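Below: protein 1.
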Amino acid sequence: MSNRPGHCKYTKDHEWAKIDGNVATLGITDHAAELLGDIVHVDLPAVGKAVNKGDSFSAVESVKSVSDVYTPLSGEVFEVNTALNDNAGLINQEPFGQGWIVKIKLSNASEADGLMSADEYEKFAAAEH
C-alpha cells in the first residue's frame, strides 16, 4: 500500500476527501483500488448534480466487480475527472493523484469533522485484512 496523504479525510467505505476551502476533491483509497483489482470503467456523475452525504455518486467497475462510490460530504458536483473515461486505471495507479473522481462545492463543510484522519484510516484498513 502507498502512503496515504495526511491532509485528506477518509471514510469506512474507503473514500477520501481532500478539502480546500469550500471545495472537496473525492476519490477512492489505495486500499479500495487494491481490493477491486484492475479498474476498467468509472461512471461519472453529471456536473451540477447535488449530492448528500452518503449518496452514491459514482460506480467503479473492475475486472472483479462493480462498486458504488459514496460521497462523504454534501454539495454540488462542479468538476469530474474526464481523464478516467479514457484511462480508468488511473485510479489503480494514482488513487490520491490523477485518479480523483469528482470535485464538489461543499454545502456543509462541518460534515468533514466526522471523517477519519489518515492515521485513523490506516488502523481501520489494517484491521480489515
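Below: protein 2.
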Amino acid sequence: MKLLNRRLFNEDSYPERVLQFGTGVLLRGLPDYFIEKANRAGLFGGSIVVVKSTDTGGVDKFEQQDNLYTIHIKGIEKGSEVQDVLRISAISRVISAVRNWAAVLESARNPQLEIVISNTTEVGITLDEREDLFASPPVSFPGKLTAVLFERFRTFNGAEDRGLVILPTELIDKNGAVLQDIVLTLAERQQLGADFIKWIKNCNHFCNTLVDRIVPGSLGPAEQKQAEGQLGYRDELAIMAEPFCLWAIESSDPYVSEVLSFAQVDKGVVIAADIQKFKELKLRLLNGSHTFACGLAILAGFGTVKEAMADPVFSKYVRQLMHREIIPTLVGIGIGRGEASEFADRVIDRFSNPFLQHHWQSISTNYTSKMRMRNLPTIVRHRQQSAMAPTYMALGFAGYLYFMKATEGGELFNEWKDDLQECSDFWETTTQYLNRLQAEETVLGVIDQLNKKEEIR
C-alpha cells in the first residue's frame, strides 16, 4: 500500500505564515488542525513551517510523507458516538534546528510570516543561564525565539509592521507574559540594543493561551490497519484526537484577531480580552472532578475513566458532583450557569469516550498537590456561599484520604484538617465518609446511598 504523499492528492499550497516550534501531537491535533480547517474554508490561506527543536527522531517521516498526516477524531458528542477523519496538509516543511539552524533564521526573514506557535513542554519556557543567542542553535526555546526575532528586526530595520503574534501553548499560567519576560531578559543580557527591546515590547504580541484537547497519539495496530483499508494509503504520522477542542487566546487587539483569521472556522478557537474563565472551567470541572473521583474509582475497582463512566451509579456521582456542587461555586465568581452546565456536559462526554484508555492510576500521580491546586479553592468557595457541606465533594475527598491511607492523627490527615479549619462542616462530613469507607462498605454502595439521599432532598 502506498505511503501518504502529495502525489496522491491535489493539495493547495499556501505562503508560509506560521513558524511552529514543536512537532508533538498536541500541536498537530489542535493548532494545525484549526489552520487546516480554515485553509479549506478559505479563511486563512497560510502554511506552517515547523521547527524540530530536539535532535531525537529526526524529520525523515515528515519528509517521506511530504509533511502530510491524518487526524482521526473519535469520541462522544452530546451522548452520541462520533468518528471523523481529516487529512492535514497545512505543514509546508519541517526543519531540524540542530542540523539546519540557518534555515530557521531564513524563515525569520520571510515578509509573509506573521505567527509563532510553540509547545515545548512547561520546562521549555524557562530562562537558561547558559544561553548564547548566536549559537547554532541557541539552547532553549526562548533563546531560539529571541534569535529569530532579532534576525527579523535586523532584516526589516525595526519596521513596526513586521512584528509577530506569538502563541505559546505550554501549560503554564500566563504563558505569553512569562515568555515575553524571558525574551526581554535575554535581549538585555546579550546587549542586543534598546531599539530591539523597544521593538519586542511595542511591535510583537505575546498572547496568553489555554489549550484543551486529548490527543493520545498514534493509532493502535488494529486501528491503523482498519484506517489503511478505509483510506487506501499508509500513514505513519496518523494521530487520534477526541472531538472536544479548545484554544483560548487572550487579546483585545483588533490586529491580533485580523491575523488569527483561522479563529473564525471553529467555535473551539476563542479570542477574548480575558481567558480566566476558561481556565476556571477546565481546572474546576474537568481536572477537579477527575481528582475528586479518582480515589473512589480506584477503590471501586475501575481501571480506566471510561469503565467508571459506564457504571450508572458512578457516572451519576460525577454528574451530580459537577452540577450540584462545583458549578454553583463558578457562578459565584461570575461564570454563567448555562456555559458552566454546557462545559460539564461535555466533560461527561469526554470521560465516557470509549476510544480513550485514561487510567485512574495515572490520574492519581501527585494526588495531594492536584487536590490542593484544583479542589481546595472550590471547597472554600462552597463554604463561603452555602451553609450546607458539599456531600459529593466530601465523599470524593474521603476517597482520596482512604486511597492515601490517611487516618486521624496521621500527618496528612492533620495537614488537611489545618487547611480546612474554616470548613469544619465539610471536614466533619468527610470524616464520616472516611469512617464508612474504612468500615469496608463498598464504594459504589456508599455512592448509591448518597445519590438516593440527594434525590429525596
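Residues 285 and 344 are 6 Å apart (CA to CA).
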